[in-house]
Amino acid sequence: MAKTRRRPYAEQRPQDLGGGVWSVPVPIPGNPLGYTLVYAVESPRGPVLVDAGWNHPDAWDALSGGLAALGLDVAAVSGVVVTHFHPDHAGLAGQVKEASGAWIAMHEEDAALVR
Question: What does each C-alpha distance from 62 to 18, 27, 98 come to in angstroms?
Answer without folding.
Answer: 21, 7, 17
